Amino acid sequence: MMNKKLFLLLCLAVHFVHAQKKQPFLWGVATAAYQVDGNYQVDGKGESKWDFLTNKVGITQFTIGEKQTGNVAINMYDRKQYLKDIELMKELGINAYRMSLDWSRIIPDGVGAVNEKALAHYDQLFDDLLAAGIEPLVTIYHFDYPAVLLQKGGWGNPEMENWYYNYASVVINRFGKKIKNFITFNEPYIEFFLVENMLNAQNNKLPEKEYYMSQMQKAHRQLIANARVIKLYHDLKLKGQIGIVLNVNPAAPWDEKKVADQKAADFQDVLINGLFLDPLYKGKYPKVALDSLAKYNPSFKPSTEEMAFIGANKPDFLGINFYAPAIVKGEDSAMSLKWLDNNPDEVKSNVGPVRPEYLYKMLMRLKNDYGNPRVIITENGTGFVSEDVKVNGKINDPLRTDYIKRHVEWALKAKKEGVNLFGYTVWSGWDNFEWVSGYTKRLGLIYVDFATQERTPKQSFYEYQKIIKENRSF
Ligand code: FCB
């Protein structure tokens, strides 16, 4: 018989080996192709939806009164530039970088020939990142796609599901062995119910409520495409994981004592979060949401087979983008994500009220109501116009620093309480092109001079560096 001491020693050794093997917690920063890459006509890239919106429709002219585009952005497609940026990532101490691929570079006309130059570029970028000890988290689709497909109706065209599947297959077949973490889509809610709605308002096509609801078919199509690509990935038996990213916005009542506000908050919560979490994890849409949608869009009737297919092909992990809860008033009975601020004393952030405890609440909800999936925080961050200014060559941003610290604290508390959290990435590493807000909103840890491309790490960069050091082996 083995003596007790020897047995204990053996247990310890086994435990040690396991601990070594365990994937380290991922600490990272995030970007998306259109917001950072620039070089919009380099290496055979085709025109994308956002190239079209910014250059030809003038979306930022409509929203911020000035024409701004991502044609140059922060020049990250350029290898000389991104190698410098990788040096900054190393200095920051991150071991993960969330980035997105540009469909209009890989298949310029959406469905036809594959552009080898673009694939070679990404291959090189992945090698450069991996050589620096940084794991790429690759978003296959982040709001943007070839403009020719937009002209064919985009997600309004049933064929879009096949076009996306074809594009995603090219990506997975080419990079499936090198990349360990894929993301199918980023924030369907924001793409369809917020950004596209702005475009609709600009073109004055449909009454607001009707428009919101007609978007549901598009979101549903995306969920089916998501399930098809997850299935493909699993069938290929690749040794990584594939997930989807949702914006989670817990809804809080404007006035807790008002029944109408509370009711509206509960309703919004179903529309914003349940609408995507339930199909993904329970294979069905929440009844309240379907009933509400039926009022405006009676033609939206997902089939039992579709729902079963979505439910049967669950993501391996859920990426959550959390900025702020939606604060809701009684009269907000339609679909209407708003980041109202009910604290008059608070300095206004670019992304809504600062309420880190809601991140914790959301994480606990995923654990308790959705079967404790593997979760990574794929975006979290903020910006305050007042502090994103260079003074004597330095950017002191204590409000951003405080925001990040508090969100990390609440996230780690949830992890300690059993949430299956495996990473955290800040939006964003760099100031960049903020969609309809152009360059007017800075959310980076690194300040970018948009005219010269000069980078200057902000105070929050050094604070995040400390957080990572302290929690490296969390
Ligand atoms: C999210 C987007 C991301 C960035 C942040 C601020 O909705 O996914 O690209 O713009 O907002």
Automatic annotation (TrEMBL):
Pfam families: Glyco_hydro_1. InterPro entries: GH, Glyco_hydro_1. The lineage of its organism: Bacteria, Pseudomonadati, Bacteroidota, Cytophagia, Cytophagales. Belongs to the glycosyl hydrolase 1 family. Gene3D superfamilies: Glycosidases (3.20.20.80). The keyword Lipid metabolism does not apply. PANTHER family: GLYCOSYL HYDROLASE (PTHR10353), LP05116P (PTHR10353:SF36). Coiled coil: none annotated. Residues 1-19 form the signal peptide. It comes from Arcicella rigui. This is Family 1 glycosylhydrolase. Keywords: Glycosidase, Hydrolase, Signal.
